[in-house]
Every structure is written in C-alpha cells, then in structure tokens.
Design a protein that fits this description.
Layout (H helix, E strand, L loop, with lengths): L1 H24 L6 E5 L6 H17 L3 E5 L6 H8 L7 E5 L1 H6 L15 E16 L7 H10 L5 E4 L5 H13 L4 E4 L3 H10 L4 E5 H9 L3 E7 L23 E8 L5 H14 L3 H9 L3 E2 L5 H21 L6
Parallel strand pairs: 1-2, 1-3, 5-6, 5-7
Antiparallel strand pairs: 3-9, 4-7, 4-8, 4-9, 4-10
Length: 323
C-alpha cells in the first residue's frame, strides 16, 4: 500500500511539472505588446525601445512598443491592468502609475499594487539645480539663504504631485525652510525659466539639466542619489550633506495581475541579459541613466512597494488632497 501511495504521489508531481514548465518554456509564441505610459522620445521611452529590441533577438519574437501617454500614465496603466495575464501585454512605466497616482486620484481604473513588477530597466536621478547667478555656491549656503529669507525663494516643478514637486517638499521638511512652489506643465518650461532667471531652483532629472549645467546656463549643486554620479564626480549627493533624499525617474517593466510566475521569471532573466549588452549600456549612459537589471522579480516588487510608501508620505506631507 505504501508503495502504491508513493507511486501515486510521484505521478501527481510529475504530471504537474509539464504544465508549470509550459507556462514559461514556450513563451513567447507570438508578438508581445509593450505599452509605454509616456510620450515618445523621453528617457523611459528610449530605454524601453532599447530593451525591447534585445528581447526580440533573445526570444525570436516581435516586441511592439506602443505609447499610451496621458492622465499621468493612467491611460497606459489601465490598458495593461485589464489585459489577459498571459505575458503578451506589458507595461513600461515611470513612477506615476505604480507609486504616485493612487495618492493623487480618488478613483483609478486599476490597482497600482496589483501589477506584477518584472524588472527595473533604468533610473535617472533628480538633481538640485539653481539659476546661474543664484547667491549660493553650495547646498549649505542655499539652506542658510532660504532660512534668512523665508518664502522668498521659488522652486519650479513639472506639475503638482510630480517627483520634482515632492522632492522639494521633502527638502523643505528636512531643512526647515519655506519656498514658493511654481508648477509647470512639463520639463521644458521649468528649464526655460531657470535659464531666464524667473525661478530660483528646481529638483529635476539630471538627463534634462546636465547640458545646461555644462554650458554654464545653470548650476547643479547636488544629486538626489544614493552615491555620486560618475559623470558629475565633483557634485555631492544630498545625503553627504546630511539630507537623506533619494528620488529619481525610474522605468519599470510590469505585467498584469496574476501573470504566471514562470513567465515573469523568464522575462526578468531576458531583461537583465539585455541590460548587460554593451550598446544598451552605452546608450543609457548617454541618457545619464543608472542601469537596472540587477535583481529578480522579488527585488523589483520590493523597490516599487518602497517607492509607493515614500511618495505616499510625501503627498500627505504636502497636504495634497486626491482629486
């Protein structure tokens, strides 16, 4: 009887293996859609297209990149969230739909925590930028000036609730300063007014600010990153100054809820391999991006969850009410 039971158990385990293996082993067997939640041309879009091109070679299948911008990423996110969880519709997104929007919108047609993170493709840190004639050469001098002139300084952002806005909120909290927030619609007008001297400073992605810093049109005082940026070795991090601020625009690849773990793992492995390719790494460095691809799906999920908590705390601290 024992032998019969053991044989039956073994047979059951063996019969389950092909089903589990099939979920990942034959994937993908047809074209895959990658929905990008922002417009073409930016860092998120470029990184996605670089990785998608490599995935086509790895899998021998077409990966169609489709931009669905609008509503702070909500349109693209909803498209993927409601798709079949079979790995053939994926989301390449900025932080907004996965970590920020739930704190800014009363109703979303998707659950940000329901997505299955696959891999982090890239991260572009934010930097503290001041107008070229700003009367402070260091962050410490900026803080002293702001304390001596409460409410006199203005900082621009890409809009209410964006990373640049909330990074400024965090900066004021930690330094005990008070500045006037000036929201814009996007990156370009912020940089235009920094160069023109219409606003004093901004917290914005380094990929957008680097060229004008190099040209002397504005100055980068510090990086909101975990360590100094290799292309700005003389610029300190805010953490070095005693301000534990680390914010960036990251690009995550995610799948709809309930996507099989075998498919997620297979995609994660392929994305990590793509990000090790020399031409991909070279192009991402040109974009001033920190290259991802160093962990499994669990690490990606932990990162997104931590980001969701961080931005939630900042939205509450800023006193923003969901609209």
């Amino acid at each position: 009887m024992f032998r019969c039971v053991a044989t039956a158990v073994a047979a059951g385990l063996l019969s389950a293996l092909p089903v589990q293996a099939q979920q990942g082993a034959d994937y993908p067997s047809r074209p895959v859609r990658v929905i990008v939640d922002v417009a073409p041309g930016g860092g998120v879009d470029t990184a996605t297209r670089l990785v998608a091109a490599k995935l086509e070679k790895i899998f021998g299948q077409t990966f169609v990149v489709e931009n669905r911008p609008g509503a702070a990423g909500n349109i693209g996110a909803e498209t993927v969230f409601t798709a079949e969880p079979d790995g053939y519709t994926l989301l390449a997104s900025s932080p907004s739909p996965l970590a920020i929007n739930q704190w800014l919108y009363k109703k979303l047609a998707y659950d940000p925590a329901g997505f299955v993170p696959i891999a982090m493709m890239s991260r572009i840190p934010n930097v503290l930028v001041v107008r070229k004639d700003f009367p402070a050469a260091t962050v410490q001098e900026l803080i002293a000036y702001a304390k001596a002139h409460p409410g006199a300084l203005s900082y621009g952002s890409q809009g209410v609730g964006t990373a640049s806005h909330l990074t400024g909120v965090m900066f004021m909290q930690l330094t005990g300063t008070r500045m006037v927030h000036v929201p814009y619609k996007g990156t370009a007008p912020v940089l235009t007014d920094i160069i023109a001297g219409h606003i004093d400073l901004t917290f914005i992605q380094v990929s957008s600010a680097y060229a004008m810093h190099e040209a002397g049109k504005a100055r980068i005082l510090a990086a909101a990153s975990d360590q100094r940026l290799e292309f700005l070795p003389d610029v300190p991090t805010l953490a070095e100054i005693g301000l534990p601020i680390s914010t960036d625009t990251w690009n995550a690849l995610s799948a709809p809820p309930k996507t099989p773990a075998a498919i997620v793992a297979r995609l994660n492995h392929a994305v990590n391999a793509a990000l090790k390719e020399p031409d991909v790494r070279a192009r991402l460095r040109e974009l001033k991006a920190i290259i991802g691809g160093n962990g499994g799906p669990a690490e990606a999920a932990q990162f997104v969850a931590a980001q969701r908590r961080q931005w939630g705390d900042l939205v509450h601290a800023a006193g923003l009410e969901p609209q």
